[in-house]
C-alpha cells in the first residue's frame, strides 16, 4: 500500500496521483507539483488515501509545496490570458487561410510555453503560423490536433439528457462504447437517440453495460419458444430490470391466445453459453453502424445446384474438346482426288 494525494489540473479532468509531503492539504486547495512538462499548478481532489501498489506507476513524484498567494496570482493571470490569446490565434488562422478550428489553449505555469488545441478534417501545414505566434507571444508554441470526442470534452455542453456532458464533468477518461451496448439494453438504434453532442455513441451507455450483459445471458431471446407452467409459449417481451418475461400462449383447442408475465426461474429454455464476444469498434458515424447492422444478406444473381453445375460444366468441356478435335481432323484430312484440300478459315 502506498499513500497518495490525488490532484487534477482541470475541473472534471483526469486525476493524477502524487506522493504527499509533510504538509496537510484540504480538498480544493492549490498545490504545486512536478510533472514531465515541468512545474504545474494543480487542485487537490483527495488529500490522503491508501492505494495498492499494483494500481500505481512507481515511483510517485512528490507534491512540491502548497500554493502560495504568489502562485495563486500567477495561475489567475495565466487563466485570464487565455481568451486574449485565443482571439489572436484565430485572427492568425484566418490570415494564413488554414482549415482548422481552435478549441482551447493553456499556458505553462512558469510562462515558458503555450499549448493550443485544434481540430481539423485533415493534416494542416501550420509551420508559418507557429513562427508568427512565437514572435508574438515570445515563448514556445505547441499546436495539438484532437478528435471530436476530445473537442467536446474541452468545450463542454449540455447533453440530450439535460445535464452537462459526462466527458467534461464527471468522466476523467473517455471510455470505449459500442453498438452492442445499446442492443443489450434494448435501446432504439436511432442515431439521434443514442448519440451525444460529438455525434458518437453516448459515453453513458457503458455505465450499466456489465449488468445488462450478464442479464442477457440469463434471459430468453424475443421470439424464442419457452416452457411455462401453462404450456409452451413464445417470448414477446423481456424486462431485464425486474427479470420478467412476457409470453404468448396459444390454446388451439379453445382458439384462445393469452399473454402472461413469468419470472426467469419459472420458465424452461435453453440458456446461452455466454461466450465472450469481441469488443466492437465504433465507426465514425452511427448511421454507418446501423446501416451495416440492418443490411440484408446479398442474394446471388444465379444459383446453380452443386450436382447440376458440375454436370453442365463437364458437358460444356466435352463439347468444346470435341469441336477442337473436329477442326483438327478437317485440317489433316487427305484429298480423295489427289488434289490438296482447300484451306479453311479457323
How would you describe this protein?
Helix content is 31%, strand content 24%. The chain has 346 residues and is α+β, with helices and mostly antiparallel strands. The protein has a five-stranded antiparallel sheet. It has a four-stranded antiparallel sheet with strand order 9-10-11-12, with no helix packed on it. Helix 2 links the parallel strand 7 and strand 8. 16% of the residues are buried. The model is unreliable at 274-311 (pLDDT under 50).
Order of helices and strands: EEEEEHEEHEHHHHHEEEEHH
The SS-based structural class is: alpha+beta
Average pLDDT reading: 78
Distance between the termini: 92 Å
Helix content: 25-40%
Task: Assess the beta-strand content as a share of residues.
Answer: 15-25%
Globally, the shape reads elongated
Side by side, the strands of the main sheet go 2-1-4-3-5
Detail the poorly predicted runs: 274-311
Largest sheet: 5 strands, antiparallel
Based on DSSP secondary structure assignment, what is the total number of beta strands?
Answer: 12
Task: Write a compact overview of the structure shown.
The chain is an alpha+beta fold and 346 residues long.
Amino acid at each position: 500500500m502506498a499513500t497518495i494525494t490525488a490532484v487534477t489540473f482541470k475541473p472534471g479532468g483526469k486525476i493524477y496521483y502524487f506522493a504527499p509531503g509533510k504538509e496537510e492539504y484540504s480538498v480544493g486547495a492549490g498545490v504545486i507539483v512536478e510533472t514531465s512538462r515541468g512545474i504545474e499548478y494543480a487542485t487537490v481532489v483527495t488529500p490522503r488515501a491508501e492505494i495498492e501498489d499494483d494500481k500505481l506507476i512507481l515511483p510517485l513524484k512528490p507534491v512540491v509545496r502548497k500554493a502560495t498567494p504568489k502562485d495563486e496570482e500567477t495561475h489567475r493571470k495565466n487563466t485570464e490570458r487565455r481568451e486574449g490569446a485565443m482571439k489572436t490565434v484565430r485572427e492568425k488562422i484566418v490570415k494564413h487561410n488554414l482549415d482548422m478550428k481552435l478549441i482551447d489553449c493553456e499556458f505553462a505555469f512558469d510562462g515558458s510555453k503555450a499549448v493550443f488545441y485544434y481540430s481539423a478534417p485533415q493534416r494542416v501545414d501550420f509551420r508559418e503560423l507557429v513562427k508568427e505566434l512565437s514572435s508574438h507571444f515570445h515563448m514556445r508554441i505547441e499546436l495539438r490536433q484532437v478528435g471530436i470526442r476530445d473537442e467536446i470534452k474541452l468545450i463542454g455542453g449540455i447533453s440530450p439528457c439535460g445535464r452537462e456532458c459526462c466527458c467534461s464533468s464527471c468522466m476523467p477518461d473517455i471510455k470505449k462504447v459500442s453498438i452492442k451496448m445499446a442492443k443489450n439494453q434494448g435501446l432504439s438504434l436511432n442515431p439521434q437517440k443514442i448519440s451525444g453532442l460529438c455525434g458518437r455513441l453516448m459515453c453513458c451507455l457503458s455505465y450499466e453495460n456489465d449488468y445488462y450483459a450478464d442479464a442477457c445471458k440469463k434471459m430468453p431471446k424475443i421470439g424464442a419458444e419457452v416452457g411455462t407452467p401453462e404450456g409452451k409459449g413464445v417470448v414477446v417481451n423481456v424486462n431485464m430490470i425486474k427479470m420478467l418475461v412476457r409470453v404468448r400462449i396459444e390454446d388451439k383447442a379453445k382458439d384462445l391466445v393469452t399473454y402472461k408475465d413469468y419470472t426467469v426461474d419459472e420458465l424452461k429454455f435453453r440458456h446461452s453459453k455466454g461466450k465472450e464476444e469481441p469488443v466492437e469498434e465504433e465507426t465514425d458515424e452511427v448511421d454507418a453502424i446501423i446501416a451495416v447492422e440492418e443490411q440484408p444478406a446479398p442474394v446471388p444473381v444465379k444459383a446453380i445446384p452443386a450436382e447440376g453445375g458440375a454436370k453442365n460444366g463437364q458437358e460444356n468441356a466435352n463439347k468444346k474438346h470435341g469441336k477442337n478435335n473436329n477442326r483438327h481432323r478437317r485440317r489433316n484430312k487427305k484429298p480423295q482426288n489427289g488434289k490438296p484440300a482447300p484451306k479453311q478459315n479457323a
